[in-house]
Design a protein that fits this description.
135 residues
Length: 135
């Protein structure tokens, strides 16, 4: 990751553009472990799952229509509408501290299927084909 050297603390400070970008009018790049979407890009008006991770080890799963994302300092906020309850929901996560665990995840409905298919294709392409001696 590119960044700027902070002379007072001698730490690498990430550039905000490495962490959060608005892509046109309808998509956002959010570089966070909380985002499970291809290239960490979420698109307005698409349906996503929000997985809230509870302190007791449980979770809540909701489906939302993603509406918007914005940045306040290094905190990324997402806004969506729960498609069952019709309620507006907000979630946020600090982007410049990888030590902070996610207490929620936003998941593209196709993300894991796409990842599995790409891994199968990658495996199949690198696997040696059997030799047919009966020719």
């Amino acid at each position: 990751m590119n960044g700027l050297l902070n002379n007072s603390t001698k730490k690498l400070t990430p550039r905000i553009s490495d962490l959060f970008l608005e892509l046109g009018d309808d998509a956002f790049f959010i570089n966070s472990d909380c985002v499970f979407a291809k290239n960490r890009i979420i698109v307005k008006n698409r349906i996503y799952q929000i997985l809230d991770l509870l302190d007791n080890g449980g979770f809540h799963l909701n489906h939302i229509k993603f509406m918007h994302a914005y940045l306040k300092g290094f905190d990324a906020f997402i806004v969506g509408i729960d498609i069952v309850k019709g309620e507006v929901i907000y979630r946020h996560h600090r982007l410049d501290n990888s030590m902070l665990p996610c207490d929620w995840l936003i998941i593209d409905l196709d993300y894991f299927e796409t990842e599995v298919n790409e891994n199968i294709i990658r495996f199949s392409c690198t696997k040696k084909q059997p030799i047919n001696d009966n020719k």
